[in-house]
Design goal:
alpha+beta; 24% strand; five-stranded antiparallel sheet; Chalcone isomerase; binds heme C; elongated; seven-stranded antiparallel sheet; 2 domains; disordered N terminus
């Protein structure tokens, strides 16, 4: 039996549903087409909603990831609309997963994983009508051929144990891995007319605070600059760091967000870090420290940023203590304090020598 749902039928349904209650009306509009027991390959998914791009590179999976490598995931627009309205997957939901290889591993922006070629296409469909006996009524398909860049035009569903059972066991929301799709988390049940990008839901999708420390700061560590919150603030207020021999003669416009790009900053370095930079060493010594004064529009001192190395090995930034305060009177006006602050690290990774970004020598 050929059960194609035609575009014209969709248009008729859409026009007839405008005044009715949404949850019922678009139930029967499918963005997929069954050809007997085979799913026809959707060809218009680039017009759907892009929900995320999980990446399982081969070189992090013993040379052969189970699902190579970039997974670009799209959902059909009406199911997304229903997800926004109700936080549930409607009858007829389809998600498509386009597989793309890792191409380059470095680019002008840095090292990383950059998309290579198309290597496959998979899909999952929720339908009681077509898959009454699949768990959750979700069925799983692959249009991928051994040649990778060719695709099948239609395909049968996999058996439960091939796909469905892993999704059932590990996916967050009714077989869909929303834990890996911020676009879907931000939209879940927020209401059909709400723009997720303007809603509080967007903020709450991330459980990760990039300004929180991710490694312990050694207790009582003090190789010149104290790291404990109140002691550090008192040290900065005292201006002791102004006696460092290695300091900028003048303020310079900040190239980073301290506190805003373009506002004046002034850098003071301990001898330890200055000699390490002068020797062009890969890693600076434990105890090396930098204080950066940050000024406001009027040229008044408005806070400090501090970096101190608390161990010999930088350990991807965990071995650095990071601190930023945006007041000279309120020790609680803290942007970040502690080791391994990912928000600081993610930017101090780029074009830096062991996380130090200021150009050296300080006064060329
Ligand atoms: C061992 C666990 C596992 C198995 C088996 C599995 N998947 Fe998935 N699948 C995932 C994970 C995890 C994600 C989300 C993250 C990602 O794409 O890496 C996902 C995502 C998907 C998506 C995107 C929509 C969604 O549900 O999040 C599709 C489509 C998909 N898989 C199809 C398949 C197909 C087809 C098979 C069987 C050939 C299959 N999966 C087998 C773990 C699995
Ligand atoms: C968006 C990028 C970015 C982020 C995020 C960032 N910085 Fe910076 N930071 C810079 C740049 C660029 C410089 C050097 C250039 C300048 O100051 O003009 C710098 C300089 C510094 C310096 C002077 C020493 C050096 O490395 O050159 C300190 C100290 C500092 N940052 C601390 C921090 C702390 C602490 C955080 C987190 C609260 C942080 N930074 C977050 C970009 C960033």
């Amino acid at each position: 039996m050929n059960t194609k749902i035609l575009i014209s039928a969709i248009i008729v349904l859409i026009t007839s549903m405008t005044s009715c209650d949404h949850t019922v009306d678009y139930q029967e509009i499918y963005y997929f087409t069954m050809n007997g027991n085979e799913l026809q390959r959707p060809t218009d998914y680039r017009k759907w909603i892009f929900v995320g791009s999980p990446t399982t590179p081969n070189d992090m999976n013993n040379g052969k990831a189970a699902f190579p490598e970039f997974h670009n995931v799209y959902i059909d627009p009406l199911s997304y609309k229903e997800w926004k309205a109700t936080g549930k997957w409607r009858e007829g939901t389809i998600l498509v997963k386009e597989l793309v290889s890792v191409g380059a591993k470095s680019a002008a922006s840095g090292n990383g994983y950059f998309m290579g070629d198309f290597i496959g296409l998979e899909a999952t469909v929720k339908s009681k009508k077509y898959f009454p006996s699949e768990p959750g009524n979700w069925a799983y398909f692959s249009f991928t051929t051994p040649k990778g860049n060719d695709l099948k035009n239609s395909t049968k569903a996999f058996g439960k144990s091939d796909c469905n059972s892993c999704h059932a066991a590990n996916a967050q929301d009714d077989f869909v891995f929303t834990q890996h799709y911020p676009v879907l988390r931000a939209a879940m049940g927020i209401g059909e007319d709400i723009v997720p990008e303007n809603s509080d839901a967007r903020k709450s999708t991330s459980k990760i605070d990039i300004w929180a420390p991710t490694a312990p700061t050694p207790k009582g560590f003090n190789m010149g600059i104290p790291l404990e919150k109140d002691a550090l603030f008192a040290y900065l207020k005292s201006g002791d760091y102004k006696s460092f021999k290695n300091q900028e003669n003048d303020k310079h416009p900040s190239q980073g967000p301290h506190t805003k790009v373009g506002l004046p900053v002034k850098v003071f370095m301990t001898d330890m870090i200055a000699s390490s930079l002068a020797a062009n060493r890969e890693q600076h010594d434990k105890g090396a420290g930098i204080v950066k004064e940050m000024f406001n529009e009027k040229g008044e001192l408005a806070g400090w940023a501090v970096m101190v190395k608390t161990q010999e090995d930088s350990e991807a930034g965990l071995g650095w203590f990071w601190y930023e305060v945006t007041s000279t009177t309120d020790s609680d006006a803290i942007a970040a304090i502690g080791n391994g602050v990912q928000g600081c690290i993610s930017c101090h990774n780029i074009g830096a020598r062991d996380f130090v970004r200021t150009t050296f020598p300080l006064n060329p």
